[in-house]
Amino acid sequence: xxxxxxxxxxxxxxxxxxxxxxxxxxxxxxxxxxxxxxxxxxxxxxxxxxxxxxxxxxxxxxxxxxxxxxxxxxxxxxxxxxxxxxxxxxxxxxxxxxxxxxxxxxxxxxxxxxxxxxxxxxxxxxxxxxxxxxxxxxxxxxxxxxxxxxxxxxxxxxxxxxxxxxxxxxxxxxxxxxxxxxxxxxxxxxxxxxxxxxxxxxxxxxxxxxxxxxxxxxxxxxxxxxxxxxxxxxxxxxxxxxxxxxxxxxxxxxxxxxxxxxxxxxxxxxxxxxxxxxxxxxxxxxxxxxxxxxxxxxxxxxxxxxxxxxxxxxxxxxxxxxxxxxxxxxxxxxxxxxxxxxxxxxxxxxxxxxxxxxxxxxxxxxxxxxxxxxxxxxxxxxxxxxxxxxxxxxxxxxxxxxxxxxxxxxxxxxxxxxxxxxxxxxxxxxxxxxxxxxxxxxxxxxxxxxxxxxxxxxxxxxxxxxxxxxxxxxxxxxxxxxxxxxxxxxxxxxxxxxxxxxxxxxxxxxxxxxxxxxxxxxxxxxxxxxxxxxxxxxxxxxxxxxxxxxxxxxxxxxxxxxxxxxxxxxxxxxxxxxxxxxxxxxxxxxxxxxxxxxxxxxxxxxxxxxxxxxxxxxxxxxxxxxxxxxxxxxxxxxxxxxxxxxxxxxxxxxxxxxxxxxxxxxxxxxxxxxxx
Amino acid sequence: xxxxxxxxxxxxxxxxxxxxxxxxxxxxxxxxxxxxxxxxxxxxxxxxxxxxxxxxxxxxxxxxxxxxxxxxxxxxxxxxxxxxxxxxxxxxxxxxxxxxxxxxxxxxxxxxxxxxxxxxxxxxxxxxxxxxxxxxxxxxxxxxxxxxxxxxxxxxxxxxxxxxxxxxxxxxxxxxxxxxxxxxxxxxxxxxxxxxxxxxxxxxxxxxxxxxxxxxxxxxxxxxxxxxxxxxxxxxxxxxxxxxxxxxxxxxxxxxxxxxxxxxxxxxxxxxxxxxxxxxx
Lengths: 676, 281
Ligand SMILES: Nc1ncnc2c1ncn2[C@@H]1O[C@H](COP(=O)(O)OP(=O)(O)O)[C@@H](O)[C@H]1O
Ligand SMILES: [Mg+2]
Known about the structure:
By secondary structure, chain A is mainly α.
């Protein structure tokens, strides 16, 4: 005890053996300040992270009660009931449109050759017209005058002055016509030699030389201002018409079946329309009631703040007019309950008619066109879906009660496995995560499938096989990709990649590729390719690091045992680095799933669950993503609204996904470093 | 069965024929390694080995001694062309013949060479694989998949390395879980599994405790009946204990090479005497 006091005394004494030098404030030296400065920055970063977590969670957590509340009103107003019938009708509409498209594909097949040529001519004519625009216009004007002026001259016979003027105009127009017509022919002939005139882009049309000549001739005959048509093409369109007519006659049974099937829903549609109006009115009443307390409170607050007595009085009157009267739910839903028997009456003939129509449709394999068969195959699943939805509705409708409490689990699930994301709707807003989640995941799958082999192979090459000269070139080049602003990549995706891919997909010899030809320029494939490009630097750099961390002693030992370079790479280096490579892949995935700008610009932004029945071709469909939807919609929603909170929930999910990916990657890396 | 395998490998090692002369068993007085007036440089300018010539006889242990940086490791790694991995490094003069083949001949495949000239490193470096896979590695890369054959080679090699009894119950556990001395013996087992003619050892005990060192030294004495061993060592007692011949290097030159007993009792060069009596180095 006494010893410690002694030693502290000596330490305090002015000149100890080893006095500290330098300035001191509050007993802190320069070293301490530097230390606290850096420590403070680190602490700030952590505090920010925690704040972000809290902020996200606070905004998002209120989503579920509010969402549940909306669903309760949805039920009380009878909208839920109406949507049961709506689902039947939707399923039927989808089925009807599929079979109709299949039918049209069959009909159009008959006049394919003619339509193709007519289409080519129309495109060439437009292209020529665009290239001779000025001449075309002037020639057209002149010819119009030549046609109209003689009549006017006839009318103006009595007025000498006007007559002279008109005649002068006519002569001028005739002169112009004579001047421009050969010019136009020359320009048009020149334009016809340009290859780009024959570049039909997406609608690739293959032409024989003969056909090309005929089209050239026809295009030159279609002079501006004249209604002439090349006889060959007049014949073509006539032939096309006739062939279609023949096809229609041949397919008359098909058409009848399609019509029968499509017409079956009319009575049900009428019922649905009536009920929908009622439910919508109910919803308005209920919404008014639910929001009344809040509105009243806002008004009362306003009154307190108002000084002007007149204004005050007006507001007081408004406040008094706010009625908080519980609506009569039973009365509101009465017409809905009454429609139950009507539905039961309608559903049987509805389903029966669809069934008989369906029976009369031709077999999938009896169809001639690929497009027709594909659509018919879709129709088969549409049909099953229709039967399911009617069955479900038939069971659910009699059991439906407006006052049954909405289950919490159900509304939570409505978010997580909801198939629709419908906002700004006067009917009901649906916030289902699935379309966005599946879009994000599909795009990530494309990106990962492309990026992982490429980046890992590049990392192996650079780390193990390349000369250092190559290393010094490849590494910075790949890492430079990271410096490209994603909006620039998005631009590139829209303008170059999307168009190029779509043109590629329309090449006939590639039509066997799943998903080809693509109907949309902006789709998951395009976005995935760009994202793969963006993920390459991340995966490459980290994988290269992992390979670099493999002790050289392992490589040496392997080589000393007579292994070749490649054997060493595949049997020693890669297995040793595998967890590092997995971590690299995970972090690349994190990069992809969090990327916003590119997907917003390139993914097509169609909110729908991709149609997985298309197989691999699913990736050529457009989609929306979790990141994209936040970027797109957050700017235009009211703070605190359900929509706003839904977006925060999506953000929260993204955050959780990213966090778990990073966490997993860190765990894997930590394990790796412990192992040797 | 390993003998036949090695013989087929010999064919590929040799740039031309002369197979018959090699097919005969090695006899005392033969030369297995012939180093002929070698200069070596890492960068093409400065030679770190100068005018080194020596012959190494079969089934003998040859020790390289000398102060740090005198080129022992460099010469050792010339013998299995491990220096090829360093860009720009190479012999600037002379030739090295192993089993009568110039190993720096362009027709020699360094991969084939290394199947005949194994190496044990200064710091034990088993692969992060199971004990079994560590030993089987050299055979697997030669495309051997026969399980019975692999099992046998693994057992024989581990027995020869004096490790079998200690690990036979945990062949599937990681090689990295063994003690340092065991790991080094595992590396030796891995090397002899390929049945090389020559084993190069670069200070194999420098990272080990005295007991492990003693075990490895015993092992070396046993192995020399089957292999020709070249060992670099920093420890002169070790050289006296295990080697038949000793070569003393100083500043990149071979000062003297003779029977170990002679080097340590009656060296002919002044520098050797200074070094072994601890006056420098
Ligand atoms: N990879 C290398 N690149 C360039 N110089 C090297 C390399 N390895 C060793 N050296 C040099 O070669 C000389 C011999 O080294 P080394 O053979 O390792 O000596 P020892 O094993 O006898 O201690 C030393 O001067 C060393 O600096
Ligand atoms: Mg050394």
